[in-house]
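Sanity check

After download, print the first record. It should look like this:
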Amino acid sequence: MSKKNEISPARKWLSYRPEIKVLDCTIRDGGLMNNHRFSDEVVRAVYRACVEGGIDYMEFGYKASTESFPPDEYGPWKFCREEDVRRIVGDNDTDLKLSVMADVGRTNYKEDILPSEESIFDMVRVAAYIHQIPAALDMIHDAHEKGYETTLNLMAVSTIPDYELEQGLEMAVQSEVGTIYVVDSFGALYSEQVHYLVRKYLDFAGKAGKRVGMHAHNNLGLGFANTIEAIIEGAELLDGSMAGLGRGAGNCQTELLLGFLHNPKYRLRPVIECIQNHIEPMRKDLLWGLDIPYMLTGFLNQHPRDAIKFNTTEDRGNLVKFFDQMMEKE
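Expected structure tokens:
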């Protein structure tokens, strides 16, 4: 075959894997920056953009316990009551599936998560740290029995010793969970680590017929890049948020994912329109996105709470002061 007719290695990037699904978590993860006080107008705009953009799942927020979180201190998307969600989506007569997150120890799941036939939600995502795996699997069993798709979002994976991770994965794949997530909570992972982790997850999950997902934060500017690395290794459920809106440095951007995946079912214009009209106008108040304080917590593999707090003080521009404070903790 002449060089002119050779197939370029780049050709594979022009095709797509139909099994890959996108979950938009703009309202859920972004709610961590404003106590989940998004207006109905904003939530409805994100919902419509997800529907018109062909996105597979939209996550509204949390099923948090009102005993742990006083309702007068948080917006409705901290609790995701059925009536609040239905006010936005009606009966959701669309192809978009709706998701809600339940944190271990912060959710009265047996009462607040209804049987699926009584609920607007399709998926329950259980978020847990490694030491909470047994409790998480009880929650997953409950949600599965109620008829939901389920995921286990194993948080702060960059801090978990290998032997503990393997024990946790072994327990998880014996449960009813459908998808197990690599969650880079602190935005601290590099591509080599993502490759290693996704392969490890797939070693366990693949044999049990379960998917692997990826949820990336952007503290080091690698949220999108690391999601691509996870795709290369075989991850199939991918999280993104519009304009990266999310806790601290934010998440992998939904718009970048849709453009990268080449699946003709995804349409970028509705997402761009939502970002222009509803998401970007909030940036000056919510202060998410890559900056030096979030970068430093990423380098240090630490929760961004210190950076979030610093960015709301009058010292916000004093980056050297924050650097010195963080170095003193080391």
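If your output differs, re-run the checksum step. Summary of this record's structure: The two ends are 59 Å apart (CA to CA).
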